Amino acid sequence: MNAIEVEELRKEFKVHKSRSGLVGAFRDLWTRRYMTVRAVDGISFTVKQGEMVGYIGENGAGKSTTIKMLTGILTPTSGRIIVNGMNPHKEREKFVRTIGVVFGQRSQLWWDIAVQESFRLLKKVYRVPDEQYARHMSEVIEMLEIGPLLDKPVRKLSLGQRMRCELAAALIHNPPLLFLDEPTIGLDVLVKLNIRQFLKQLNERYGTTILLTTHDMSDIEALCERVIMLDEGKIIYDGSLEQLKEKWGQGKRVAFTFAEGKDASILQELTAGLDVVWKKGEQSNVWVAHVPSGGVPEVVSRVAARYALQDIRIHEVSTEEIVRNIYEEGAVHG
Ligand SMILES: Nc1ncnc2c1ncn2[C@@H]1O[C@H](COP(=O)(O)OP(=O)(O)OP(=O)(O)O)[C@@H](O)[C@H]1O
Question: What is the 133 CA–ligand 1 centroid distance (Å)?
């Protein structure tokens, strides 16, 4: 069964458009002008049970709006959504017991009471039987290493400690589907690693489906085989991360630090006939060659045979860069 089915999904917001200047402001008092923002523009995709999918896009691409529709917080303008076999907006009460949601910027824990009291309240809300709660939560608490935090009030926790408790809170009813919106934002590397490790274990142990929104591509690389990329409300790529890297990440950057300053024409002449693009580095004696992977040895040997070098560094193109390039070009071609 599919965990998520989305077909031709759209969400439009009507926003007030203000006129400029003082006269404009007065006119706004009498007649308001509106414009329509299409936050999500006819997207379709399915997510199978047990998949971990990265949902990525630049600021304002429409990620949060999609998640809000998938979790039943917002109603779509048009289109069809089925999540865990239900319409999220219509079968609200039954539906929320089948999903977990973590918004990195918002908390579902009560600020002034001990973490375990929040957990107990949520257990009641979700009507989780004692035995199931004890069994499942003891595992979650152990995996997230939050045992020592349970009797502390949330306001006394660091951000990393709080986020681990937020994750545990979202899982009290052991939902088959988890939505994570920027779960590692602002966290230090060790906490990020702990959270990623935990999500992997959760997926392996319970087959939990995870839809993850993040700006941190290393989260995606650590967890998701599949990515859906959004741009201006439309899907511009839906496929494996591997394929994205193969298609877009070919080539390497070789940074040469010369003993003395060089200019572009000399280097172009030296590598004439090879597939190389030279770009100036941060200092006058640093030049970076963009070369297809197989071409690196030839470029290095020509340059090193002719000029004295202080250093050579070879960089793989990172997923972060691949994604940035795709957004700069605006679409994923062929
Ligand atoms: N309640 C709202 N009213 C009006 N416009 C909205 C509303 N919510 C979102 N938008 C607009 O819809 C578009 C998509 O916003 P959304 O928050 O879904 O993007 P996002 O991809 O989650 O961005 P970010 O990474 O910054 O969170 C933006 O242009 C945003 O300004």
Answer: 36
